[in-house]
């Protein structure tokens, strides 16, 4: 069942960017059986970011395997023409980037208009003020702690202070703060202390495991959770 009540507890969201692309269904079942909270789905267009992954059809195909929360992160521009397709694919959250176009206010309206929770993502160079006038229309802010496009990069330390500022700006609003990029047991305590509650992790979850050795995914997630809590 998707989480419906807003909470600031620690949520681990493995990114399937680091999973076996030929075996998404089994990979998703494995990470959920091993205790993940959300499933993070990275969509890249080879234009907004220098890498390509997949589109709404793949999202729709993997949807039935996700029993938790399907968190779709769109790294595409333009984004507006594709929102409906990702909503129809069954996303619980759709995040689009501030930098994806001139009318992200409209983009957030469009996502919510499809009955999906809206997320706004910020590249590392984008100031936190960019989301100030969107806060009453979003459910999640994704703070990119690496330059989007690839897994396995190092967390950019300057983003920790940005998370603190964002947390203060959000106040009592029911908005998740998601960290995306370079999350591992050494960095997760820092971003948790700064105020984040959703932690995307690709390499730190999938490293060393496989669908035949899913307990490694479980160990990796327990290490992350323990370090955050
Ligand atoms: C990067 C993606 C991330 C990425 C995180 O563009 O948005 O979700 O998969 O990977 P790690 O955890 O390996 O940094
Ligand atoms: Zn992502």
Structural class estimated from helices and strands: alpha/beta
Secondary structure: number of strands = 8
* General shape: globular
Might you state the CATH topology name? TIM Barrel
Task: Give a quick account of the main beta sheet: strands, pairing sense, barrel closure.
Answer: 8 strands, parallel
Trace the largest sheet across and list its strands: 1-8-7-6-5-4-3-2
Number of domains: 1
Q: Helices and strands, in N-to-C order? A: EHEHEHEHEEHEHEHH
Low-pLDDT stretches: none
Instruction: Label the CATH architecture.
Output: Alpha-Beta Barrel
Rg over alpha carbons: 16 Å
Helical segment count? 8
Bound molecules: D-xylitol-5-phosphate, zinc ion
Describe the structure.
With 229 residues, the protein is of the alpha/beta class. It has a single domain, classed as Aldolase class I (TIM Barrel). Helices cover 31% and strands 18% of the residues. An eight-stranded parallel β-sheet has the order 1-8-7-6-5-4-3-2. Helix 5 packs parallel to helix 6 and helix 6 packs across helix 8. The radius of gyration is 16 Å and the shape is globular. The protein starts with 10 loop residues before the first strand and ends with a helix. The model has no long low-confidence stretch (mean pLDDT 97). The structure holds D-xylitol-5-phosphate and zinc ion (ZN). Zinc ion binds next to strand 2. Pathway: Carbohydrate degradation. Belongs to the ribulose-phosphate 3-epimerase family. Catalyzes the reversible epimerization of D-ribulose 5-phosphate to D-xylulose 5-phosphate.
């Amino acid at each position: 069942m998707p989480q419906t009540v807003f909470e600031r507890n620690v949520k681990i969201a493995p990114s399937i960017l680091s999973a076996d692309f030929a075996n998404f269904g089994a990979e998703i079942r494995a990470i959920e059986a091993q205790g993940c909270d959300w499933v993070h789905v990275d969509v890249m267009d080879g234009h907004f970011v220098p890498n390509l992954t997949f589109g709404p059809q793949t999202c729709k195909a993997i949807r039935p395997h996700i029993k938790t929360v399907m968190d779709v992160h769109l790294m595409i521009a333009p984004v507006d023409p594709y929102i409906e397709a990702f909503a129809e694919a069954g996303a619980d959250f759709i995040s689009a980037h501030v930098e994806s176009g001139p009318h992200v206010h409209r983009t957030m309206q469009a996502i919510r208009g499809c009955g999906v929770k809206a997320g706004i993502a910020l590249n590392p160079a984008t100031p936190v003020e960019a989301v100030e006038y969107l806060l009453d229309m979003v459910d999640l802010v994704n703070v990119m702690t690496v330059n989007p496009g690839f897994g396995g990069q190092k967390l950019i330390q300057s983003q920790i202070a940005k998370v603190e500022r964002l947390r203060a700006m959000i106040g009592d609003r029911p908005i998740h703060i998601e960290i995306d990029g370079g999350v591992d047991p050494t960095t997760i305590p820092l971003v948790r202390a700064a105020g984040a509650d959703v932690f995307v992790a690709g390499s730190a979850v999938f490293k060393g495991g496989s669908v035949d050795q899913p307990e490694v995914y479980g160990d990796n997630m327990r290490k992350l959770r323990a370090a955050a809590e």
